[in-house]
Specification:
This protein has 394 residues and is an alpha+beta fold. Helices cover 39% and strands 19% of the residues. Helix 6 crosses helix 8. The relative contact order is 0.13.
């Protein structure tokens, strides 16, 4: 069959995507969090912490109740990863360091990002000297991040170290108390990866190929969004990525699939879990709508009276579909489902299962339900939850 003639049903495309994202089939527990990071290629970071921070929720969704400290250790120890600008601020496998040379060059050519230093050479030299002498440091340890004004009123030290991060002289090697820990790239990145020898075309080609493998099947816009590339950049490299042109029922736009994903039908058990709003399965809102017929929007920055689903609404994944969402919170030893939306009775048991699993993971021994717009579904959910984590809902 000519590759251009390959057509996929909407269901086949969805299952390919779920498997590529590690949410269909047996999880690779031996590879663990690091294996998951390599598979996804990027895990988004965010300041919000409800049940846990988003980068913890991503492996939880795929691997189950991995200890939170084990997650942090897997990400940040032994030089396996670094933080840089991908889809947003993301944890990235260290092997991807060369692939972002194009972005580092772009930042250097521009000369600044948000702030302009009066004496950039002096400020950057001071940061380099401190890091060289004292090893990995936070902004506070370097001298402080703010001038005392608004949150974006950065000190010269903060501007300088972030500029060196943008351009590749400095690396964020971990988060400590949610503060970036900076180190010199020459010390933090393995010698065989510490180079910007790859030209822009090859950098983008590799990132698009990686995004295609991580998504299974994707449109050009999907591929661009994964690492926040431009559509024309994706278009220019697509012929060299190895991705296969396909058509997907109902998508209305050309798509490309990872040939490895097409080699075998996706089978296995679907995860039933709550997803972070920043999970790479759902971080692209148009793709989520197209693939799951599910409108997803983070409302943390929406004024409370205007929120529809809550501050940190987490989609419920069950049976390979998005069947609802919950805005969770914690009150002492109780997980509180402050607001719940369910796609009918079929979503009740999976939501109860997901809530109890999440409660157990974060050390809660009680689950309570707050608001649910459908009174009958709320009653059914409360009843399912009373069965406990080992009842019919599980």
């Amino acid at each position: 069959m000519n590759s251009a003639e390959i057509s996929l049903s909407a269901d086949e495309a969805r299952r390919l995507a779920l498997r590529a994202q590690g949410l269909l089939g047996a999880p690779d527990r031996r590879a663990g969090v690091r294996g998951m990071l390599r598979q996804l290629g990027a895990v988004q970071l965010d300041t919000i912490s409800v049940l846990a921070r988003s980068h913890e929720l991503v492996p939880y969704a795929r691997l189950g109740a991995v200890g939170r400290q084990a997650v942090e250790s897997a990400y940040w120890s032994d030089g396996h990863s670094f933080e840089y600008w991908s889809h947003a601020a993301c944890i990235l496998p260290v092997e991807e360091w060369p692939h972002f040379a194009f972005r580092r060059r772009e930042r250097r050519a521009r000369g600044h990002r948000w702030h302009v230093l009066e004496d950039k050479d002096r400020a950057c030299a001071l940061v380099r000297d401190r890091l060289k002498a004292d090893g990995p440091l936070t902004t506070t340890e370097l001298g402080g991040g703010k001038n005392g004004g608004e949150w974006f009123d950065w000190s010269e030290t903060k501007i300088a170290v972030e500029w060196l991060l943008d351009t590749g002289e400095v690396v964020c090697t971990e988060r400590r108390g949610w503060k970036r820990v900076y180190d010199l790239a020459e010390r933090a990145i393995p010698d065989d990866l510490l180079h910007d020898d790859i030209d822009d075309h090859e950098c983008v080609r590799r990132l698009v190929a990686q995004a295609g493998a991580a998504m299974g099947v994707a449109t050009r816009a999907d591929l661009a969004d994964y690492h926040r590339l431009k559509g024309e950049q994706v278009e220019a490299v697509l012929p060299g990525t190895g991705l296969v042109p396909v058509s997907v029922e109902g998508w209305g736009k050309p798509a490309w699939a990872d040939p490895a994903a097409l080699a075998s039908a996706p089978r296995g058990r679907h995860r039933t879990t709550l997803l972070s709003p920043f999970d790479s399965l759902v971080w692209d809102r148009p793709r989520t709508q197209r693939m799951f017929d599910f409108t997803h929007r983070l409302e943390a920055y929406v004024p409370k009276p205007k929120r529809i689903h809550g501050y940190f609404a987490m989609p419920l994944l069950a049976g390979g579909k998005l069947l609802g969402r919950v805005d969770p919170g914690r009150e002492n030893s109780a997980l509180v489902a402050r607001q719940v939306s369910l796609a009918g009775r079929k979503a009740v048991a999976p939501m109860a299962k997901a809530l109890w699993e999440a409660a157990s993971w974060v050390g809660c021994d009680e689950v309570r339900v707050g608001r649910c717009d459908d009174a009958e579904l709320r009653e059914a959910l409360v009843k399912a939850l009373t069965e406990g984590p080992s009842g019919p809902a599980g």
